Amino acid sequence: MGRRFFVGGNFKMNGTQTFLKNLIDNLNAGQLDDNVEVVIAPPALYLDQCRKQVRKEIGVAAQNAFNATSGAYTGEISPEQLKDLSIEWVILGHSERREIFKESDDFVASKVAFALKSGLKVIACIGEKLDEREAGRTFEVVTRQLQSIAKVVNDWTNVVIAYEPVWAIGTGKVATPLQAQEVHEFIRKWLKENTSEATAENIRIIYGGSVNASNAAELAKQADVDGFLVGGASLKPEFVTIVNARI
Ligand code: PEP
Question: Can you give the residue range of the structural domain that contains 223?
């Protein structure tokens, strides 16, 4: 069975009720490739609005979730609360969370494990920074990030891995199709050797970092690129073109 292509839109801290309503109207009206799983990730405040407005075949993800069900965790949101709003997915380990909010590999891993145990599906982000790539440490960094998740996750069925080189996020500097393929292939091989052949074969490994309507089709041709996590371009009508990159 082939892996279903997956395209996520990470809206980050952007949008208002009106802006998101217009964006969703455009998505709802768009002709989207049926073979693609589409998930949008609005800011937490607008999850409920977006879940209600977007057509049901499109999934909705939170951009973060804490590793407890409830309690004295000011400012946090739990997987239970997301499920209460019929939110199916959560993005964890985004480089902005790792960098700006100092989330460690182990903290990200514990949130991944907790979200999965709570019944959410997880888009787990990994990727190296520019200095790490320039120092030839890309594989070492993604291995370290994967290893911490693999320590606490046995069943990867509900995980999508987003390889997002930090130097490509929001910079307009997209990885070349070969650069993306090289790391995706490495990740799949690592999963084969460290989890199981079935996990490696079935898991979706998506690419994120300055994907747009012009570069998506070439990236999508790579054997181990199973989709995209899209930031900036997901806030524009071109998101529909990215979803349809393989048509
Ligand atoms: C992201 O933040 O996940 C991302 C890929 O952003 P952009 O597409 O804007 O580089």
Answer: 5-243
